[in-house]
Amino acid sequence: MLLARRIYQFLIVYALGLGLLLGLKYALRLSNYVIPDPALIWQTFAAVRGHYLSQTLDTLYVAIFGQIISIFVALAIGIIGRQTTWFGALVKVAAYNVQAYPIVALAPIIFILLGDGFFTRLTIAAMICYFPLLLVVLGVMGQPVGDIEHFYRITGRLRWQLEVKIRVFENLHKLTTVVAGSATLAMAGTIVAEFIAANAGIGYSIRIALYQSDLGRILIALFLIGISLSVYQGLLEAAGAWVRQRWERMEGGL
Amino acid sequence: MKLHCQDITLSYAEAETPVFAHLSFAIEGPGFHALFGPSGVGKTTLARLLIGQIQPAAGRILSAPGRRHLYTYNLERLPGWSSVGHHLDKVTPPARRPTRDDLVAQFGLENVLGQRFAQLSMGQKNRINLVRYLVQDFDMLIMDESLANVDEPTRERILLKIKALFPQRFFLYISHNVVEVARFCRQVLVLRGAHRQPQAVVLPAGDQGGGRDPSSRDLQQTMLAMMNAG
Lengths: 254, 230
Known about the structure:
The complex is a heterodimer. By secondary structure, chain A is mostly helical.
């Protein structure tokens, strides 16, 4: 249900955007060179769909890996940053300050240091979706659930694992929502990396289409990016809902 | 076993008036005692002070019953990832399992052990929460409105059971129910506000179930004394 909603929401937005472009084309009598007509777009789609689909999936794989890395790093930093020690405070302050810097501006440095291969795209994807995730994880981990934690704290049973478990469980909806939302950022980060200097992925294909002023190809790339991202986000949301239901049903041990 | 505080002064930051100004009192234990007073007078603050969660600006606790002090309040929750019975199992020391089973039966909770905390009524939540505290190792237990959502007959049964099972422990029961406090508690610490001196008075009360059976006249006198003191 979540997946279907994601897909048709994207299709509506894409159709509106395409309709606006075609409206402009016919209103201003623009040539097919500026904005291709529907027949030309369809022809382009038929010509590049296989190649663009494989490039989009390539980008999506990198984005997914990048997102997984950033989730683990954000969780680790969030768990350390929740502590009221000087180190926890330092981690929290550092995280808040570093995220204020536009991380995409560091992309050229990463390309210079790591080259234009897989690891560069992965690093940039992870960095771009990491900070919003970290802020939410820090917020969740740093906020005690007093009504539940009180008993365990006063009886000396509150270990850090239990504290984290309580806070994650109480904020599971918020966490799964931000993980699904950060998929967009991971995808955006990967595309930006490919657009800047990589030699693979749909961002690289968009760059070539841009140099050729081929709006048809760009529109098809955007369609494939949108549809694949919608499917991925829908699956993430469905997985989050499944985890919540399962956790609420099972007899987990303390 | 005695709870004795002397000259305690405490203010919250940015507050114009202190919560406590030279608060002194002594309650002889053990037994089931009450902390009584109008809303906002500092009952919960005093409870937090007694368990060491906050420190006074001046004064000190001269003596407290034993070393292990617990504080429970009526809004506490159990985690939602497993049943309340499972949670009780996890936090009950093996030696106290018979006590837990007895309490569960007496508190009328046998039928809810398989349910999640969120599925329980407010009164059941209060009772389950209290059971998990009663099976802990404690010298003093402060119960802050712990039975606020429990009906009167069940509350009476629970209080009598607690008194029968734990005669050597020190309880401090925070409640706004004058009749209940006057009837079941051994001594009542009435907090009167920082602007009055003495700020607290300790009154003897009915202690029903603790070896006494107060007459209705005794109860009326206790209630009158509590209201006058407050």
